[in-house]
Structures are given as C-alpha cells and as structure tokens.
Design a protein that fits this description.
four-stranded antiparallel sheet; alpha+beta; about 140 residues
Length: about 140
Amino acid sequence: SSGINAEYGEEEEALYMDEETEELYMDGEAEVIHGYIGHIENMDREQATEMLTSDGRSNCYLIRNSTRDPTFPYVISICMNGRIEHTRLGKRPNGRLAIGVAKAGEVSHEDLASLVRYHSDIPYSIKGRNVLLNCPVRQ
C-alpha cells in the first residue's frame, strides 16, 4: 500500500515528506502524516495561527516543528470555536511522543504518524474539550 489516502493526491504527499521526516518517522514505507507542516521550516505560532484562521474550519489542525525546546519537538495548533490553541508534543525519556507534559497513565506513541492516527479516533482533551485530529489544515 502506498499510504496515500484516496482523497489526497501524490502532489500533496510531496508537501508532507522530506528526507529527514522519512528517515525519522517512516518504516521504509512512505506514509502521509496529515496536518504535518514540516516543510515550512521554523513556522512559529503566529504563522500557524494565520494558516488556521485562513482555513476557517472549526477543529482544523496542523502539526509544526517546535522552535523552542528539543524535549517538545512538535506543536499541535488547532482552531477551536474561532480560537487557536497550541499544545506541545513531548518526547519522553524512552523516545516516545505524547501530548503535553508527562502524565501518569498516558498513552505514548512510537512516532508522529502513530500519534496522529491514534488521535484521529481517540480524542485528547484541550481546555476541557475532547478534540480529534481528523481535519488537517488546507494548504
């Protein structure tokens, strides 16, 4: 399987993939990480806010590389009822990723792709709301 969702074409796949991403997060098979904006280097929260505001859909999200702390290599930025919220993805001592700071009993993930897949079916809580990652920002 090519790992490309039928609603996304090969051109969009190219936007998500670069050699470093493929090397770090792939198991030899190209897999689109929906919502990952890794091709825009050093995207900050203002740029993320602008991109999500331009999209305009509630619960649309993007995942960007963090520009601050290497123990939190990514940030999920999501539009909720017209407000943009930013949540860091933490890298745990065992190398796995999870949303926010470490919590007892949390579910962690082997890589970014598995975190996105998991939270497209199982919501995570932000500001008291349960959110699914099933509406990636339009690019």
